[in-house]
Design brief:
25% helix; 6-stranded antiparallel β-sheet; Thiol Ester Dehydrase, Chain A; alpha+beta; single chain
């Protein structure tokens, strides 16, 4: 299994499932978003506090490939890596069901940094994620 820079365990709640008794597709994006926010905290910043300063990471593009459905009560882990592509921060996120580690969804989320309503190169995020954006 490949190495990830961050991971977060969660559990499917009943209301996240649709009539087919599987997790509704939109909730996978919620899981990935929550993992990114928690990753930001671990890196030393807080999404809400940054917003109060006028700094926002805004999602510009999302791609999700759905592989295996999660169901109510399933435990799962979101694992992610981050990379810089020009002005974009790109998060590569995988959701695995526990305990069998079956890949449920694979996502690519591109975000940009907006400072008081103006697009920036995201230098602040380069500082926040410096330990994770280092070249090997």
């Amino acid at each position: 299994m490949k190495k990830y820079q961050f991971e977060l365990e969660m559990k499917v709640r009943d209301y996240e499932c649709d009539l087919q008794c599987i997790v509704n597709n939109a909730n996978y994006q919620h899981y990935m978003e929550h993992a990114r926010h928690e990753f930001l905290e671990v890196a030393g910043a807080n999404f809400g506090e940054l917003h109060k300063r006028g700094i926002d990471a805004v999602v510009a593009h999302v791609e999700i490939d759905y592989k295996v459905s999660l169901t109510s009560g399933d435990r799962f882990v979101v694992k992610l890596n981050i990379a810089r592509e020009g002005v974009k921060l790109v998060f590569f996120e995988d959701i695995f069901r526990l305990p069998d580690m079956k890949l449920c969804a694979h996502g690519r989320v591109e975000s940009v940094c907006v400072d008081n309503g103006r697009l920036t190169r995201g230098e602040l995020f380069d500082e926040i994620f410096a330990d994770y954006l280092k070249k090997d």
